[in-house]
Amino acid sequence: MRIAVFNTKPYDRRFLTEANAAFGHDLHFLEPRLEPATVSLAAGHRAVCVFVNDTVDAEVLEALASQDTKLVALRCAGFNNVDLAAARRLGIEVVRVPAYSPHAVAEFTIGMMLAVDRRIPRAWARVRDNNFALEGLIGRNLHGRTVGVVGTGKIGALVARGLRLGFGCTVLASDLVPDPELEAIGVRYVPRDLLLREAEIVTLHCPLTPDTRHLIDAAAIEAARDGLMIVNTSRGALIDTAALITGLKRRKIGAVALDVYEQEADLFFEDLSSEIVSDDLFQRLLTFPNVLITGHQAFLTEEALAAIAETTLRSAADAEAGRPLENRVDAARMASSK
Fold first, then answer.
1. Beta-strand (E) ranges in 51-129?
2. CB 106 within 8 A of CB 159
3. At residue 5, what are phi and psi to the nearest 5 degrees?
4. What is the pLDDT of the chain when averaged over all its residues?
């Protein structure tokens, strides 16, 4: 199958090329993101392969359909950037990578908790300046803390399990479908509002839907415990950034660790070190000493990249051969599960 691979970085090319030895697709790597201005680059390709910040709205899908593209392959788990209803109407199949390496994101999530709670980034910066004073670096144990896990799919379940069994935390969870295996180890499922009120740390692992957009807003922050730590390695728009900043300024929020950001499409995955970043909310977040931000790298391990490439290219091979699409994103099914 001839595939236009948009928004590619060197690591994408490496792992997709290596995985393609088993499939033999004709891969055309493109640096630009997929959007209305670049959709013409997909002409003559049966499939497009895109990432989280590519635009796959109705306008783009209609252009793809007019160019006889039949498949959108997301090399990620999230699909909120795709107009699924339009894809269904136009006869374009959409596939994703639902479980590339949940361990990658789960391990990174707990690593961020530890880093921000134990002041590791600040300590590292001090040592580089030969400052070995410990004042201002007092942290807290993770052991014995109450952590709320919102969303216990593959990633959230691993985070909950690691916190419960590895660190001895009291773990509260919120999900539409409780996991009996987590309940068996002492994870307690509670309503989301109760979780937000009782947890000392809240970590987000749910998809972005109309129901979860700005899940963490001014009201949720006001109802939370004083000094709450918020961790987000899922989707940026789960958090209302303006409300988050207000909570930090009021000292209602004690710490924040973000690998995703509400308006990240204009920032992440690019080297902007010589540019002036005009996003005032993002720049304001960077001024807080109790905020840790990384650039959407939680998924970035060798194991995860290899799994993403293999799953994506296998889905394309299944589509070409007319086989059932195991990782198909179905608009009707997703709507009914919200």
1. 71-74, 93-95
2. yes
3. -100, 105
4. 95
Residue 33 is given by DSSP the state P
The catalytic position among 192, 296, 310, 314 is 296
Question: What is the helix, strand, coil percentage profile of the chain, to 5?
Answer: 40, 15, 45
Q: Is 264 one of the catalytic residues?
A: yes
Paired strand residues for 50: 74
Active-site option among 75, 192, 235, 314: 235
Strands (E), 83-225: 93-95, 146-150, 170-174, 188-189, 201-204
The overall pTM is greater than 0.85: yes
| pLDDT for the residue numbered 331 | 56
**Single-letter residue type at 117:** D
Considering the candidates 205, 264, 310, 314, report the single residue annotated as catalytic: 264
pLDDT level of residue 98 (50, 70, 90 thresholds):
confident
Task: Give mean pLDDT, residues 194-217.
Answer: 95
Q: What is the rounded CA–CA span in Å between residue 256 and residue 219?
A: 17
Percent of the chain clearing pLDDT 70 (strictly above): 98
Contact 198, 172 (CB under 8 A): yes
Report the distance separating Cα 226 and Cα 200, nearest Å: 8
Q: Which of 2, 94, 11, 80 is nearest to 46 (CA)?
A: 2
Decide if pLDDT at 308 tops 70.
Answer: yes
Find the largest Cα–Cα distance for the chain: 64
Report d(CA 164, CA 160) in Å as an integer: 6
| Non-local CB neighbours of 11 within 8 Å, separated by 6+ positions | 300, 305
